[in-house]
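Ops channel
N.P.: pipeline sanity check, posting one input/output pair.
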């Protein structure tokens, strides 16, 4: 029985991955047409001037941007596909599944937009703040694009923390009280995760991710408590 269940889960994951890759490929191919404009907007937003040191560097950087754009714009479709394919094993009601899909999409875009408009400009400004008459920054376009994409993805994914905690609570795997008691360990984990995720070792960029993560952690605990209270009311009504 367990073997059959595992096969079903693996087949669902395979379908989700294949459909998601197809969507990302199509959207990414369309995004490639506008990849140069996307790069220009990214440079304007961060007020940066970059250089390329090899002939194909700009081309590969635009391809990288196209892949990211494909994932970025396809995210709602990926979430919906994931829900439709896995709803038979997740065990959530249709209304709950719809709520989780919308919540996940909103959190992802809030995280990426927060990074784009707040974190990237201030973070990059801080990192190139060591420039002077002798020391000049000559950032390659490849390193710049990779840095921005990694930061945007990091914030987009980490902003999903509240919905992950709520889903765990829905499945009854952990209680809000338990997480609340372990705040000190959560803070330590968030600090370590932020240091690993952010591509620079400075405390400033680490805090730009760590502070929102902790706020999201507290929001997650609050949502878990609300869900537990709701579940208690439902259980009492059944008696």
């Amino acid at each position: 029985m367990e073997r059959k269940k595992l096969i079903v889960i693996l087949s669902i994951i395979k379908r989700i991955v294949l459909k998601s890759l197809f969507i990302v490929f199509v959207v990414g191919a369309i995004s490639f047409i506008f990849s140069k404009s996307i790069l220009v907007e990214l440079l304007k937003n961060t007020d940066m001037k970059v250089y390329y040191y090899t002939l194909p560097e700009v081309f590969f950087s635009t391809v990288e941007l196209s892949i990211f754009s494909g994932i970025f714009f396809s995210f709602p479709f990926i979430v919906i596909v994931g829900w439709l394919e896995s709803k038979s094993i997740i065990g959530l009601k249709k209304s709950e599944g719809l709520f989780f899909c919308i919540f996940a999409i909103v959190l992802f875009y809030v995280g990426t937009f927060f990074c784009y408009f707040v974190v990237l400009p201030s973070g990059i400004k801080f990192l190139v703040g060591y420039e002077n008459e002798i020391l000049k920054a000559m950032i390659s376009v490849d390193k710049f694009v990779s840095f921005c994409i990694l930061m945007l993805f990091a914030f987009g994914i980490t902003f999903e923390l509240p919905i992950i905690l709520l889903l765990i609570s829905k499945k009854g795997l952990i209680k809000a009280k338990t997480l609340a008691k372990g705040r000190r360990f959560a803070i330590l984990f968030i600090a370590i995760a932020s240091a690993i995720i952010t591509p620079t070792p400075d405390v400033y960029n680490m805090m730009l991710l760590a502070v929102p993560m902790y706020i999201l952690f507290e929001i997650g605990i609050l949502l878990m408590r609300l869900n537990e209270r709701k579940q208690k009311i439902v259980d009492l009504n059944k008696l």
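N.P.: looks fine end to end. Strands lie at 50-51, 139-140.
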